[in-house]
Design goal:
Oligomer: single chain
Number of strands: 10
Largest sheet: 8 strands, mixed
Radius of gyration: 25 Å
Shape: elongated
CATH class of the largest domain: Alpha Beta
Distance between the termini: 42 Å
CATH topology of the largest domain: Beta Polymerase, domain 2
Number of domains: 2
Structural class: alpha+beta
Helix content: 40-55%
Length: 427
């Protein structure tokens, strides 16, 4: 869909007047917005506050997709929002937000909506500087206007607002133009914005992969110039970003793009970055075979196991005489830099070691079907055994045995309804 926009505006700076698309000019309908989000928007509006849907929800609905989340921005302060909604609480110190909770029959777990107050960038003006000196956390909590709030966001396509008052879409940063042209563009100076938050580099790649958009030239130049800063990102923050990749199935595509732009070596452990190209085909099979995970823990262990796989197979090819204790020791060593970089929970590290123990049992011809199937991570190991047969050079007689078993194993409750025989049929 094509949206009207001002062709003369510089996309690197906010236009002096926003582009406003009236209801007849865009496809967003209240029917496509979560009813509880609509309730929040209307309560804020009816109490005299400005209330917009913001960010990814607006972008996705303009593209005809269903948003995963509905984030809301308003000129009400966190305390004012809290007074309007008893089912809410203020969270965060660095960045003050309000979470509003809904418990209803339609959802098995509570729905959480995030409400933020319009914010403005920190400046070096006297009033700001003195306030920040006294209370450093205020640097991210300086309230501002919608235009100032839009300019603080990461990419132009994520800075669009939907106004519940008149159902219009508001664009302060030429995001509609970039949405039309399928472009990922950072707001402001790329070097400054990526230095502020290097995780935006991974987000640029992820959005390009997920939406099948291209990255604007200056934006990708900034990604490459500031990629070194990814090595300083805290492990917990990186892991949170990766969780989003698992559920959106963009890990393989992001790794390919990261290889192309020579960014992976700055955020992945050295050996994994060096062997990344060999792991990508297996990760693609994981993303193709498993449904979008309701439980990201399942995909996390599979994807991490795939990332370390090339190095492990180089050291220990599948064979009848491989010593499992040596394999497990090497898997543990291989996980150390991964854990240091992404802070993997202990249960995930144990799960990955168990997957490899079972995988090598299959590879050396262990045919104790009942005993192996009873193990927690057997089906993960079976997936890898089928998926990487050519790469791991499994013996034909062992492979044929488990290929025959796979059809009956599909009926096992642990298989979760997945057709493992389909994997073997591809070999």
């Amino acid at each position: 869909m094509t949206f009207s926009h001002k062709p003369d505006d510089d996309p690197q700076t906010s236009p002096s007047e926003p582009v406003i698309i009236t209801r007849s000019g865009h496809p967003i309908s209240r029917k496509n917005i979560d009813p509880n989000a609509v309730k929040i928007l209307y309560r804020l509006k009816n109490r005299g506050f400005t209330a917009y849907l913001a960010g990814g929800a607006v972008r996705d609905m303009l593209l005809g997709d269903t948003p995963a989340d509905f984030d809301i921005v308003t000129n009400a302060t966190p305390r004012q929002v809290k007074r309007l909604f008893r089912n809410s609480r203020i969270i965060g110190r660095r960045f003050r937000l309000v979470h509003i909770f809904f418990h209803d029959r339609l959802h098995t777990t509570p729905q959480i909506f995030e409400i933020a107050t319009f914010r403005r960038p920190f400046t070096l003006e006297q009033d700001d500087a003195e306030s920040i000196k006294e209370q450093p956390e205020l640097a991210n909590n300086l309230f501002g206007t919608p235009q100032e709030d839009a300019s603080r966001r990461d990419f132009t396509i994520n800075a669009l607002f939907y106004n519940i008052a008149d159902f219009s879409v508001i664009d302060h940063v030429n995001g509609l133009s970039d949405l039309d042209n399928q472009i990922i563009r950072i707001i402001g100076d790329p070097d400054v914005r990526f230095a502020e938050d290097p995780v935006r580099i991974l987000r640029a790649l992820e959005f390009a992969c997920r939406l099948n958009f291209s990255i604007e030239d200056e934006t990708i130049r900034g990604c490459q110039a500031q990629a070194h800063a990814l090595s300083e990102v805290p492990a917990s923050r990186l892991r949170e970003e990766l969780k989003g990749l698992y559920s959106k199935k963009t890990t393989a595509a992001l790794l390919e793009m990261g290889n192309h732009y020579q960014i992976n070596q700055y955020w992945l452990p050295e050996e994994i970055a060096a062997n990344c190209a060999e792991a990508i085909p297996v990760i693609k099979q994981i993303e193709d075979f498993f449904p979008t995970a309701d439980n990201s823990k399942e995909l996390e262990k599979m994807l991490v196991a795939a990332l370390i796989m090339p190095g492990i197979f180089k050291k220990f090819p599948l064979s009848d005489n491989v010593r499992l204790n040596l394999v497990q020791e090497f898997v543990e060593e291989s996980l150390k830099p991964v854990n240091q970089r992404f802070n993997l929970p202990r249960f995930q590290r144990h799960a990955i070691k168990d997957i490899y123990s079972l995988l090598y049992r299959l590879g050396r011809g262990d045919k104790r079907v009942k005993k192996l199937v009873g193990r927690d991570h057997f089906f993960a190991a079976l997936f890898f055994y089928a998926a990487i047969n050519n790469q791991a050079a499994a013996k034909p007689e062992h492979f044929s045995f488990w290929q025959r078993q796979s059809e009956s194993l599909n009926r096992n409750s642990r298989a979760k309804g997945l057709d493992y025989s389909r994997l073997f049929a591809g070999n």
